[in-house]
User: Fold these one by one.
Assistant:
Number 1:
Amino acid sequence: MDHNYGSKRLVVGAHYGMRDWLSQRITAVAMTLYTLALVIQLLVGAPLGYERWSAIFSQQWMRLATFVVIVALGVHAWVGVRDVLMDYVKPVWLRLTLQAATIVWLLGCVGWALQVLWRL
């Protein structure tokens, strides 16, 4: 006699969800380290003004770090919003529409932030 207990949920592949979990942690660490580096630069040195702010971001390593963090923020936000939508929005058409709108919005925000960064 064969007994089936629980749902017949098919989990695809090994470490299901591990990539998303890991990307959330890695992007959070990157954003935290960047924030610490920025705060240290703001606390040490001359009073904050346009010249100082511009000098901080004129350094190539800071621009690269900012670029990485902007992309990390986009990935972090996407994974979080997508998970919330998958958990709470049940109609597939609505969930896909909201996910597509989120992707477009996040790409626009990342593109705008990068444009601001390279104009400094």
Note: The mean pLDDT is 88.
Number 2:
Amino acid sequence: MKSIAEIEERIDEIHENPAADAATELLHLGEEVLEHWICARGETPTEAKKEGFRLLALHRQGAKGDPSFNACRETCRELVYHYNLVTSQSDHPEIEKRVQLAALVAKHLVLFIGGKLQIAGLGEFCCSAKPLRENEIVNP
């Protein structure tokens, strides 16, 4: 699993991929950051899907017992929306803009969860959260 910092860095580079590949990778990066949250809580990330997407099932799992985590529900849904938009209309004249918007949404998810890990103190004993705390990569 990539670290939070590596996920954020990859999102910044995503424009190098063809549109459909970029949208798919952004969706997977969103899943990875949710896996960090779930693992930091001592749980095993689900492989299930909700409404056809693992990202939404991971969000549901991550929100159990922490109502404040619902703040990123719409961000997850928006990432799914952009994925669907890009992959269903790959010849759209504004496809690059759509991928950029998807990348911004994915980055928002990374920053939210990275911040939650710091504020909640989760991941203090988790090797994947160590770079986050040491490098203070979460910037407002």
Note: Confidence is low (pLDDT under 50) at residues 123-133, 135-140.
Number 3:
Amino acid sequence: MSVNYGSKRTVVGAHYGLRDWLAQRLTGALMAVFTIVVLAHIIFSSGPIGYDKWAGIFSSQWMKTLTFSVIVALLYHVWVGMRDVLMDYIKPVGLRLVLQAFTIVWLVGCAGWAIQVLWRL
């Protein structure tokens, strides 16, 4: 005689729920605010837009901090989205893990490049 305590749960797919949904919305909102701030700088500035103008926008410490926060938010936003897509559509576990590892390496590389560009301004 066997006893069944609850149903057997399959741990496949994007079952992270509210936490990831909220993270996607918050990071998306932060990126939208950043876009509005940068557009306001561009719209309300005078003269042609060249390297000096772009360097001026990102030269202040508060803008560098906001940009760094947006880079981190973007990376997390992309990671949550890619992880969910890979978990939903790539069923072989080995292939999914390889693709997830590639995604992490790629995102870390993009982060390093973005930070290097930001602090070089």
Note: The chain has a mean pLDDT of 87.
